[in-house]
Structures are given as structure tokens and as C-alpha cells.
Amino acid sequence: MRARLAHLWSSLWPDPARTSLGWWLVAIHLGLVLLVGGGISWYASGMLRDLADEQGKARVQLAATTAREDLRRMGEDALATARALADSPTLQRLTAEGQSDALPPFLRRACEAGGVDACAVLSGKSVVAVSGPALDWQKILTASAEQTVTFMALPATERVPLLGARAALGEAGMSVYVVRRLDQKLGRALSAQVGAEIRLIDYRAYSRGPLTAFTPLYSAALADGHSAVQRIDSQDAYACAVPVFASSGEAIALIEALLPTSAVDTPTRHLVRKLLVTALILGAVAVFAGLILGELVAGPVRALTAAATRLGAGDFSASIPPGGAAEVGALARTMESMRRNLIDLTSTLRRREAEAQAVLSGIVEGVYPQAARLLGVTPEQAVGRFCGDVLQPRNEEGRRPCDFRCPILQARSAGSAQAVEHLGSPPGEPRTAVITSAAQVEGLQVQVIRDETELEAVRRARDSVLANISHEFRTPLAAQLASIELLLAGLEHMPAAQQKELVTSLERGTLRLTQLIDNLLESVRIESGQLAIRHQSVALAEVVEDARALVRPLLAQRRQTLAVALPDDLPLVAGDKPRLIQVFVNLLANANKFAPEDSAVRIGAEGRPGQVLVWVEDEGPGPAASDGEALFARFRRGGAAEPEAAGLGLGLWLVKSIIDRHSGSVAFERTAAGRTRFTLILPAEDGA
Amino acid sequence: MKVLVADDDADLRELIAFTLTQSGYLVVKAGDGPSAVGRFEEESPDLVVLDINMPGLSGFQVCEAIRKRRDCWV
User: Fold this and answer.
1) Are B29 and B20 in contact (CB under 8 A)?
2) What is the interface size between A and B, counted as CB pairs within 8 Å?
3) How many angstroms separate the CA of residue B61 from the nearest CA in chain A?
4) Of all helices (H) and strands (E), which one includes residue A169?
5) Looking at the whole model, is its pTM more than 0.80?
6) Could you report the per-residue pLDDT of A474-530, keeping only the tens digit for each?
7) How does residue A58 score in pLDDT terms, banded at 50, 70 and 90?
8) Which of A86, A525, A599, A626 is buried most, with the most CB atoms less than 10 Å from its CB?
9) Burial code of A131-157, b = ≥16 C-beta within 10 A, e = fewer?
């Protein structure tokens, strides 16, 4: 219940966030004006009603007292009339002459002239002559005797009080009486004079009559002795009662003044109505003013809002309308400068985008041959396919990385544009690629794939070469150290044959190390371009002999024989003798290493025009024919078979490097007899 | 007590064999991986001294092959 009331209460109020400024201004203005206008009207009408009440009462009181004053004056007038009549010589004469027939017409004229109702001439208690209506003269005489020359009486014949005066006529005890009836006719005449309805009420009508709405008023007036005023709502009138007493103190009549309430209320109501109408008009003006003010304030704000919406939508063309109040104007100026900045910024961005566009538009959509070669697909196969299917990244945790976190998207979201991917395409040749991707332009994205497999391989090779070199050095050194220890221990009692064996082993180790160091030094010289080949006349036979001397202990260990068959007329070659010896030492060391024990190694040669062919043959299985040129690569070690053969993989590379610098060539073949043959072709010495 | 010495480097192999023989062991020699496995089966040595880097089968592979046949000090 409480919640429902709260909901009802809150539903009465508009949501401030959705109500316009104009509406608020109108509502507040209207509320204030109605509050002030209504308050003033209510307070003023209450005050006016009080004032009007006072005024109504004052008016009836004034009317009643004026009427009583008129009555008093009427008494004086009647006395004056009576005295004038008594002093009239005509009346004196007529009464003296006793012309009773002529008296009444005279008296009637005198009555009309004096404005009184009845005139009479009495002698003692008997009426001599009279004019006017029939009156209770006994009561009049009684009242006159009790009161002064003016008197008031309540006749027994009718309930209309009488006002009169008397004057002595002559010496004979006669007197003149003038009487006026206080009837409704007189009341009407008084009403016309005082501006309010006047009623003359016989005292007996009050004291003996039935109770009316006015009875309390009369009682109050009689008790007060002067007047009483009341608003009598049942009669819709203000009433004032004033008692009239005879000089003897007897209550004779009540003068009642009446004023209808409408006479007072109507102007008040009009005034209140006028106030309300004024308040309403003011309210309407306030609403109108609120609307105008709201429009003045909200209009520029609305315009700014519309402008901001346009800016937000990316339309910077229209300038921000200035104007409005100082604050709104400041906001408008700020927005205008913001718009100009945005225009500058976007134009810069557009220019850059156009530049990028120009670069990118030069690139035709598709897969470029280099990329296709790297990926092992044709451009036609790749276009339109999911990049994960084309790149075939290596699985991580059994899933393709691009299926749960694309490295490129991840890199871009991290603010970078490069990602490293390990590609499994083409199959069997895992490659490492660095992918750089440009931002999207018209839905297209350029991705540059740089193959770093070779770099990776070089890094790996460097590590393995270093490990290899250490191993190749340590093995002969360990053997030599052991031999030396044994020799030292057994110098005294060891048989000579054993000692010789150990020394030979030392010699072989030293030979191997020498060859290793020679090869490494030579390799460094070649790599750094410091290998200078001297061109001297060299006899191959000498070269072969020197080489044979160097490798003899090695051959002897494996019980291999070396047969050298060189034609006697073999031309000299132009070359560098120590380097050529190194070539033959390497070839023979290879033969020693790969050919079986107890086999024969052969060296042969053949002269050709301008050339010398010389070959080294052994009975080993030889390198795989598929190796081709790779056979002569640096750090390439014998055979792809695991485990790798001992050695550094420098021998054949050195051979080829040295022979190439002699402008010669080296080739490998399997002979018909199933032997492995390395053939060197060297230029013959000029003029030989 | 029989010892199998497997090393492709002849000098080292001979030196080890020489030392062991001097110490009173019976020595069997092998020059590469496969022959080492073959000699092991033929001679059933009590101890095997293995080089790691050998043609044919590496020392680890030879060790694996030996362990498959019989538990032995390597």
C-alpha cells in the first residue's frame, strides 16, 4: 500500500532528465503566480468581506439614527405648526365667533399646509372641531397631559403610534392639537430620505406579537436603549433597530433600518472575481513569459545539441550557431573551436589516409608470388580462403592458434602491427615468419610476410657449430692427455711397441687438431674476404705427396692404402701450393673417415687442353646423390642420417672455396665401379 | 668381468681398452652404434662404456636398445 502510494506520488512528478527546460520554466512560473495571486485573492477577499460587513452595519445604523432624528424634528415641526395655528387670527376669530361649521375646512387646509395628518381644536376634554381621520382622542389627551407640549401615544384603535403637539388657543382654556401617524407611508418617506428601507414598528407589535427573526435585534436595542446592529442571514439583510421613547419614558416604537446583504456583498464579490481574473491573466502571462524564456534559454542549447549531434556523426561542415546567454555563448564558442580543431585533425588524417591509400592502391588484391612461394601454394589456390588454411600455423596444444587467438589480431589490439607465426606450410618445412599487417583500407588489409626461417636456421647453426667445435677439439685432446698419462706411468716398464703405439696416437691427434685449426683459420679468412690466392706454377704430384705424408698416420690407423697414379706429362697448374695441399688433405681425410677399413683410396689425373682433371676415389658409400650443391655448404656434415658424423662440416666447403678461387670447379660422382669420386678441374699453367 | 667399450674414435677407444685391460678387465670393442648392440648380444658384458656421438646409432639409442634386452651398468 505504502509502495503503491509512493509510486503514485512519484508518477505525479515528471522525470527531470526527460523534461525540457522550457517546460520547467513554465511550470515554475505558473506555480509561483498561482500561489501569489491565489494567496492575495484569498486574503484580500477575507479582508474585503470584513470591511463590507462593517460598512453594511454602519450604513444601517446611520440610516436608523437619521430616521430617529427625522422623527424628533417632525415633533418640533408639529409643535411649530400647532403654535402657528393657535396664533392664527382667523382661528381665534372663528373660535371666538363659534362658527363651528367653518372650522373643519380651515383646519384641513392648515393640516395640509403643515404636512400633518390631523388637526383639532379642543375645549377642555371635548372636541370642538377636527379634521383628518378618526383618532383615539382620549388616549391623545391622556398622553398629552402626561408629557410635554410634544407627545407620543399608542392609540387603542389601531397599532400605529402617534406623534403630536399642542398649543393653547386664547384665554378660554381651548387648545389646538396637531397629530401625525407613524405609519408605513411615513416609513416609505423616510426610506427615500435616508437611502435604506425604514420600518416603523409599534411597540405593542413587538411586545405582544409573535417571535420573528428580528425579535432578538429588537430586544438588544431596547436593552441598550440606543441601538443594535446585526447581520441577519436568514433575511439576507443587515438590520439596525433604534427604540423610540416618549418623554415620559414609555417605549412607543422601534425604528428599523434594513439593507440587503447583496448591496454590500455584490461589490465585494466583483472585486474578488476581478482579483482572480487578474491572477489568471498574470498566470497566462507568466506561462507565456516562461515559454519565451524557455525558448530563449533552451533554443540555443537545442541548437548546440543538434550541432553536437552533427559533429558526433562526423559532419563538421556547419558552424556552431553563436548566441544565447553568456554561459551558452561561451559553450558555443568552445564547441566552435573544437569543431575547427576536429576539421584540422580530420583533414590531416584524411591526407594521411589518402597517402596510405595511394600506396595501397598500387597493390593489387591477391597473394604475391613471393608469398605464394613461401607458403607453398599458388595465388589462385590461396585467394578467397581462410588465412588459417593458407598459413597453416603450427598447432599449439593441439589447436590452431588462429582458431582461438589470431596472433595478428592480438598484436593489433595490443597496439602493435607485427606478429611472429610458426608456419606449417608447405608441409615438412616448418618456417618462422614475421607478419606485419597494415590497417584496413576499404575492407582490404595488406599483410607482409617476412620469412625468418633462414635467420632462425643460422642462429641454430651458430649454436650447434660452437658446440661442435668444442667437441671436435676436446676429443683428440682427451685422447692425447690419456696417452701422455699412460706414457708417463709406463715409461719404465712399458714394451717399446706399446710406447710407439701411444706416440703414434699422439701424432694422429696432433694431426687432426692441426687440420682442424687450419680449416677454421682458412674458413675465417674466406668469410672475411682475406683469402689471397697466389698463382704460382705448381706440380700436382708434389701437392699429392705432401698431402699423403700428412694423412698417412690416419690412413694407417684404418689400414687403408693410397694409390696415386698421375700421368707423367701432367701439366703444371697455376695455384697456391699450401692451399692445394689443404684441399687434398681434406679430401683424403674425408675418404679416411667415410670409407671402410682395409679399403683402397685412389688418386688419378688427366690432362685436358688448358685444364687439369684430378680426382680422389674411395670405396665408401659416399654422400647421397640428392645432396647436390648442398654438399659443399659450410658446416654441412656428412649425410642427413642421425646421428651426424663427426667433424665440423668445413672440409668440402673449403675445398670448393679454394678451388673456386683458382677458377676451377669441383664435382662429385659415383663411378661405374661403385666408388665415390671427387673430381677437381683446375686451369693449366699458361704455355705449359 | 667383461666390459664393452663403444666409441667411434679409434684412438680413444684403444686408450680406454688399454687402460681397462691393464686393470685386469676383459674388454670387447665396438666402433659404431649398431655394432655395439650386436657385440652386446654376443658377449653379454657386465659393463658398457658408451660414447654419445657415434655413427649409425647414438649412445642414447644404444643405451635404449641395451636396456630393452637386459638391465646392465652403462
Assistant:
1) no
2) 44
3) 10
4) strand A162-169
5) no
6) 888 888 888 888 888 888 888 888 888 888 888 888 888 888 888 888 888 888 888
7) very high
8) A86
9) bbeebbbeebbebbeebebbbbbbbee
Place of cell 636396456: B67
User: Is pLDDT above 70 for A643?
Assistant: no
- Please name the residue of chain B whose CA is at the shortest distance from the CA of residue A489: B19
Q: What is the pLDDT of residues A455-464, one digit of tens each?
A: 888 888 788 8
Question: Cell digits for B4?
Answer: 664393452
Q: What distance in Å separates the CA atoms of residue A606 and residue A603, rounded to the nearest whole number?
A: 11
Query: What ipTM was reported for this prediction?
Result: 0.76
Q: Which of A78, A136, A125, A132 is nearest to A104 (CA)?
A: A132
Q: Out of A479, A486, A643, whose CB is closest to B53?
A: A643
> What residue has cell string 655395439?
B36
Put simply, the answer to whether A486 touches B19 (Cβ < 8 Å) is: yes
Q: Do B33 and A509 touch (CB under 8 A)?
A: no
Q: Is A230 helix (H, G, I), strand (E, B) or coil?
A: strand
Pairing state of beta strands A611-618 and A600-608?
antiparallel
> C-alpha B2: how far from its chain's center?
10
Lowest mean pLDDT among A3-12, A30-39, A645-654, B60-69: A645-654
Residue range B8-50, pLDDT digits in tens:
878 888 888 888 888 889 998 888 888 888 888 888 888 888 8
What is the Cα–Cα distance from A467 to A457, expressed in whole angstroms?
15
Decide if A219 contacts A241 (C-beta within 8 A): no
- Chain centroid offset of residue A629 CA: 71
DSSP string across B19-57: HHHHTT-EEEEESSHHHHHHHHHHH--SEEEE-SS-SSS
For residue A561, CA distances in Å to A67, A549, A566, A580, A623 come to: 179, 13, 16, 21, 21
CB contact under 8 A, A557 and B58: no
- Report the residue from A498, A557, A645 with minimal CB separation from B10: A557
Q: Across the interface, do B11 and A643 touch by the CB < 8 Å criterion?
A: no
Tell me if B52 sits within 8 A of A519, measured CB to CB.
no
Among chain B residues, CA nearest to A596: B31
Interface of B with A in 14-73 (CB under 8 A): 14-16, 18-19, 33, 53-58
Pairwise CA distance, residues A328 & A331, whole Å: 5
pLDDT band at A295 (very low <50, low <70, confident <90, very high): confident
Q: What's the mean pLDDT in A141-163? A: 88
Q: Do B58 and A643 touch (CB under 8 A)?
A: yes
The verdict on whether omega for the bond into residue A426 sits within 30 degrees of 0, i.e. cis, is: yes
Cβ-nearest to A479 among B12, B54, B57: B12
Strand pairing class (A536-538; A118-123): unpaired
